């Protein structure tokens, strides 16, 4: 779907998912730091900042589309991409949640949340495209979903920062890993 706030958000979230996975890989990259609370908290703070920045981009695009009454263009190729990536993201989210729970890793659980948002966005593209195809007067659904998802990502990023910044400060002198 061209000119779609949901598709833009989905593409942006895919980039965010790659970044959050890289951050989680960094968190576990040093064998000596596998049990490092400080590294865990730093990873969560970086994820929080990335979430807030990406939510601002998604919100900006969605609000712009709503303000200019931009009509989405339906593309059949996007249907197949949305279904496959939506399912893959949901499966990845479940696996990351399970692994994060076993490892008691907030960073990994946050990465799972990001994958879950990607899956929801993939399916929201399908829903808004189908609704628009059957009733063009509901053109605003795509932008509205983009705003909602942007706000959810922003709220989670803010919560991460509120929870983790004090913990980074508390643990910075206790652990030193390079």
Structure overview:
The chain has one domain. The protein is mainly α and 178 residues long. The model has no long low-confidence stretch (mean pLDDT 84). It has 5 helices and no strands. The termini are far apart. This is Transmembrane protein 163. Keywords: Cytoplasmic vesicle, Endosome, Membrane, Synapse, Transmembrane, Transmembrane helix, Zinc. The chain crosses the membrane at residues 6-29, 41-62, 77-95, 107-127, 139-162.
Number of helical stretches of at least 4 residues? 5
Principal-axis shape equals: elongated
What's the N-to-C terminus distance?
45 Å
H/E topology pattern? HHHHH
The total strand number stands at: 0
Q: Report the C-alpha radius of gyration, rounded.
A: 18 Å
Catalogue the unreliable spans.
none
The total tally of domains equals: 1
Beta-strand residue fraction: under 5%
Protein name: Transmembrane protein 163
InterPro entries: Cation_efflux_TMD_sf, Tmem163
Keywords: Cytoplasmic vesicle, Endosome, Membrane, Synapse, Transmembrane, Transmembrane helix, Zinc
GO molecular function, one term: zinc ion binding
